[in-house]
Amino acid sequence: MLKAGVLGAGHLGKIHLRLLKESNKFELIGFYDADAKNAKAVETEFGYKYFNNIDALIDAVDVVDIVTPTLSHYECAKQAIKKGKHIFIEKPITNTVEEAETIRTLVAEHGVKGQVGHVERFNPAFTAVKDKIDNPMFIETHRLAEFNPRGTDVPVVLDLMIHDIDIILSVVNSPVKHISASGVSVVSETPDIANARIEFKNGCVANLTASRISLKNMRKTRFFQKDAYISVDFLEKKCEVVKMKDAPEHPGDFDMILQNAEGVKKQIYFDNPEVEGNNAILDELETFAEAINNDSKPIVTLHDGTEALRVATMIINQF
């Protein structure tokens, strides 16, 4: 079992602590939090060992799980990597692209592995259909959330939209050609609602909307490709695949047939895969353990995290 330590014991950090404790791939050694009062409260309530020195915790583990505020990701990761430790780092990978590039260089120099916590890659609704997504040419995403003061220290693009940016970059095999975007600050000092249009060199267009001042929560993405429409509901963990094929010569009474202006007939049918329940955060942590143990490539690499941040930064710079 890999010895793991967590940096940061806030809302998400406590979830990571619990899951690492339950996992059979990790041995949870303890945690460090800069807020000593909060750290001692967590230690008292849950029994996790609190290290009052960040270096002492890093020295005691094989894997450092970084769940601190984004501004401190870079320094925490740098300290861990220079001590030869593998790093799991929450999204966004760092505060700037330059920091992310440095982290990637350090990981290569020290021969350790890194993974970024883009948890929606492990959402069962997405994993159920990702193999069916083939060269999509139009993608539309809506990620809407009710207002929550937690996370408003960063623009909604880094708080919410970056999830969808990462998903899109993982399925569109083409460089970004052009980005246009707009954002509005309503209750925060940074934009609370944003829309972005990403054009790729292969002709694919992605239209993304993110809001943290909505009256209801929504996390939906729709992929349109040749002869197929794929819908993923990340919140409800549901998916739908609608496909078209050449219509049979003698269609059945209940077959859905469309005929275009040229007289070509297509049959519409549903190919909905089964969505198996999982804990996405546990899956991302345990697949990272497998990548370390098997010396294989993590599912969400530091490169992936860097590119998601790069596109997010390009969007923010349009505001």
TrEMBL record:
All copies of domain GFO/IDH/MocA-like oxidoreductase, residue ranges: 155-216
Top-level taxon: Bacteria
GO molecular function terms listed in the Swiss-Prot or TrEMBL record: nucleotide binding
Pfam families: GFO_IDH_MocA, GFO_IDH_MocA_C3
Domain Gfo/Idh/MocA-like oxidoreductase N-terminal: 3-118
PANTHER family: BILIVERDIN REDUCTASE A
Protein name: Oxidoreductase
The species this protein was found in: Winogradskyella aurantia
Lineage summary: Bacteria, Pseudomonadati, Bacteroidota, Flavobacteriia, Flavobacteriales
